[in-house]
Design brief:
By secondary structure, the protein is an alpha/beta fold. Helix content is about 40%, strand content about 20%.
Length: about 525
């Protein structure tokens, strides 16, 4: 199938979304519903590996939730069988029964198997077992998901074919990093392997979805910065739901990996690409790359030294203002231009420092939010005020609040930081006097605020990359100071902090439209 693993520069790394569906229906059905809703909102595919005895109990309910092209259904055996310690014929019966039930309930052919528990080195050395799986119709497995001696976290092993065991067409899709149930202490696990991870093991299990997301994000950052092809942690719907009933940690993770340029795919999609030659993986397991290759960014040094970094700016700005105002005597034309340039550069440096420090605080989860019911009309008035101030009176804003969209659940300060980023973006990249439109509408339990401008639009090919750090649309126009390209990155992260999402809806020569999706609220009752 493949020899050396290759990747073209234009091909984004893959976030492989796979979930082990194994808990009883009364536990797993609500969890799967919440998880499926998050994936539909992100239009992100996923694979569900099902313990198929659950389909005998509630097949219709699972089908109603997971039917459709977005979700791939594969096998987790029929009874959660340990395939490595079971007799070959027992494994054959389990797998064939599991595949038959998936075909009966979902009308699909299951060709993938996740082995309960996962093992160190997967099924390497298990030639007879691999042969049984192949004869039973299995073409890819997720069985390699532990560190030495069955410990966690698992190394960042990349996919490989079982060529060294004679199964040249059987693909292993290794699980990496943590098993979410072990990470949170819900299931016992041996965490005794000194992890080859520069950030170590968490001091305590995560207690909020934001804390759990921060751990998964570390794995994504490592994959991205190490140039790896695939990131696939081990996830269980019941474990996700136990910490967050609306799968908030997965919502944050999907938004983050997509912002960082990763492509979200199902397990079957990875296999099909490899089988067709669109992906190339080695014919034997390769050592996981050393985590020491990853140099963690140290933006926190800037945050910690922010006061000292900004201290010299105050006298620079003060003296430049005195010069520009003629306090030290009249200036000629060149002197006046020099004083104005000093002011402009000082303003840009101040803005750049503010961007960096705020982005670092968001990354370190030092920015918090306190949701409350907020008037959307009041938000619209603030947007007008922001546009008036930032454009020095050049911008106009039309505000439309549709019936039912009068209130939103959010932190007012964080929400206005998001709108300021959008207003600033609209003004900075407009050749003349900006015209903007703020429209709020209710969509079920969500409230969508659309923000449109009539500027130059985002350059062709940039698209959603505009949310990635240090990406700019071009040179900004006065009076906006040129930033580092963190404005939309920060706005998107703040949207996730508020339980929502910031999306790019449209961008062409007539302008750009962003949609901010948040939790709707009912207006407070008048006393």
């Amino acid at each position: 199938m493949g020899s050396a693993m290759t990747q073209t520069p234009a091909s984004p790394p893959l976030y492989v979304a796979g979930y082990d569906l194994e808990a009883e229906p009364e536990v797993s059905l609500p969890a799967v519903r919440a998880l499926a809703e998050v994936h539909r909102r992100h239009d992100a595919p996923a694979t569900f590996f099902v313990v198929t005895r659950l389909l005998e109990a509630a097949g219709d309910e699972y089908r109603q939730v997971l039917d459709g092209d977005l979700f791939d259904i594969q096998s987790h055996t029929h009874t959660h069988l340990n395939v490595k310690t079971s007799a070959p014929e027992e494994v054959r019966r389990e797998v064939e029964l599991s595949r038959r039930l998936i075909a009966d309930v979902f009308g699909r052919e299951a060709i993938g198997l996740t082995t309960p528990g996962a093992f160190t080195d997967g099924l390497l050395g298990c030639k007879e077992l691999l042969g049984v799986l192949w004869e039973s119709g299995i073409r890819f497995v997720r069985s390699d998901g532990r560190g030495p001696d069955g410990t966690v976290p698992a190394p960042f092993t990349q996919p490989y074919w079982y060529g060294q065991n004679g199964q040249w067409s059987m693909l292993e899709l290794p699980l990496q990093y943590w098993h979410d149930n072990i990470l949170k202490g819900y299931t016992p696990g041996r965490v005794v392997w000194p992890p080859l991870l520069p950030w170590g093991v968490p001091a305590a299990p995560p207690e909020t979805p934001e804390e759990e997301f921060a751990i998964w994000r570390q794995g994504a950052d490592f994959v991205l910065q190490s140039g790896l092809r695939v990131y696939q942690p081990a996830m269980h719907p019941w474990s996700i739901h136990r910490l967050s009933s609306d799968a908030r940690q997965i919502d944050l993770l999907l938004g983050y990996v997509r912002e960082q340029g990763m492509e979200i795919v199902s397990c079957r999609e990875v296999y099909e690409r490899a089988h067709d030659g669109r992906e190339s993986f080695p014919n034997e397991k390769a050592p996981a790359p050393p985590a020491t290759r990853w140099a963690r960014p140290r933006i926190s040094l800037l945050s910690d030294g922010n006061h000292d970094a900004r201290a010299p700016l105050h006298p620079i700005v003060g003296h430049a203002e005195l010069l520009a105002l003629g306090a030290h005597g009249p200036l000629n034309e060149k002197q006046q231009a020099a004083a104005d340039e000093i002011m402009r550069c000082a303003e840009r440096l101040t803005y750049v420092l503010e961007e960096l420090v705020f982005a670092e605080k968001l990354s370190a989860r030092r920015i918090t939010a306190e949701p409350e019911v907020i008037s959307v009309e009041a938000v619209g008035r603030e947007v007008c005020a922001q546009a008036e101030t930032l454009s020095e009176g050049r911008a106009e804003v039309e505000v439309v609040v549709e019936p039912g969209a009068e209130a939103v659940l959010a932190d007012e300060r964080r929400l206005l930081e998001i709108t300021e980023a959008l207003v600033r973006n609209a003004i900075a990249y407009h050749p003349g006097d900006p015209r903007m439109r703020f429209v709020a509408r209710r969509e079920g339990e969500r409230l969508v605020m659309e923000f449109s401008d009539d500027g130059l639009g985002i350059p062709s090919g940039l698209g959603t990359s505009a949310f990635r750090p240090f990406v700019r649309k071009g040179e900004s126009r006065p009076p906006m100071p040129l930033g580092l390209g963190l404005g939309l990155t920060i706005a998107s992260a703040l949207a996730r902090l508020l339980g929502g999402e910031l999306r790019l809806v449209r961008s062409d020569a007539s302008g750009t439209t962003f949609a901010l999706d948040l939790i709707a609220a009912e207006p407070p009752t008048e006393p």
